[in-house]
F-box domain-containing protein (Magallana gigas), 454 residues
Amino acid sequence: MKRLRSSVMDIKAFLQCKKLRRSHRLEAKENSGTQTEKMKLGSLGHFSVLPLELKFFILRYLTVEDLSILTITSKAMRNLIEGYRVLMPLIPSDLMKRLHITKTSQAFPHDKQKAFLDTFYRLGLLTKRSTCLYATRDRLKFVNEILTKMMCNNSDCDNLTQCMSLACFGKFLHTVIAGWDDSECQRTYDAIAHHTCLLKNVKLVINSKPGTHVQTEHEVRTFLRRVILDHCQSIVDRAFWLGRILKPWPMVHQARILFLLYGPEINGEIQWYEFCVSTPVNPEQSAKHFGELANAVQILHGYRREWTEDDIISILDELTNSPEEWMAENVAHLFILCGDVITSKMLISKAINGRTVELSTITTSFCVVCVKNSFSLSYVLGMIHNIIGAMDKPKDRLHYLNSLMDMFRELILDLHEFSDQEDGRENDMYYMVTALSEFTKKIVVLAFKNMLTS
Ligand SMILES: [Zn+2]
């Protein structure tokens, strides 16, 4: 084992002794007495009588799956397959080339994409099995060699968005490291980050004004998603890998990276200012804009080992103020999708700190988001309940409720005064007034509850 470790990827390890060239026929004659015995006792059975070249020649006719299964039949067979794997390129160069998109090629249909991913899953399995006795360091070295060959920068790739190379590498990587413990996975992330310009690029992006390095931003997002995050099999797995990506950075940068990963993107350009200047025009756009971001926040929130509720609230606070303050409706929408627990906690912390105006803005926005997306307004009443419950003095509670109604009035007057029929947002007034009337209906029912049920 020691010997294998020290000579990983070195063919000498598999050619145990360097024989002089001589006739196999004469050799066979010499050893004829012991041949049958050898076959019986030999770790490869009858296969062991063949010279190495012939063994490798036969292996060429086997599929990756067959090779992969052979590696788990015996130690000797695994060594043989590993020797073969080291000599023959694991991934044929024409296959690697076909993964990229050139000026003349077209995007891959869905079934083709799946076939590529399946191939890399099988290659990953073969690598995992045949290198199972190697030190993690050596296995990672091999994985990085594959990555170098598959990077779009090292090929004639013209369309990173539709290219399959990184996704296939991600599939390969996650298959090789499946079942590794957390510290080994951390080493994997470090090794890959160190091997590529990942950390340098992340640093460049988060230390610059959003949108300054459009291409680098797109590359970082694509790399992290396709190689690290997209192939996670479970929520815990994804939370773990998100942690590896985010944890080294301060909170303000973590929020920026989250947006970099899951914020809206159009034609490879991250829409950093979208939530500061505009609101979604319909439920489909809302889901597209906030779905992935909210999902990521929820995943982190569920991973208590590394993230406290206060961490999540800080991230949300940074996120909704980056690069500038988001529009209240967008904040409200993200909160709703992040789930009741996070939202309540966030609102209660504002209530305790006396941020009444902010609370009334968010509450009115909750109503608008509910009306726009056909969610039940009972959600809003539940949140108001939580907010009032967190306020100590009855005076503060009344102040909040009054400022809530005042906020509706202000927003409607603003819309009336500033709305421009030309900009295609004429529905905003409708939604706002509907939000107010629907909300009022709920309150009226509460006020006259006794008379409505008897
Ligand atoms: Zn490519």
Remarks:
- Confidence is low (pLDDT under 50) at residues 1-9, 15-19.
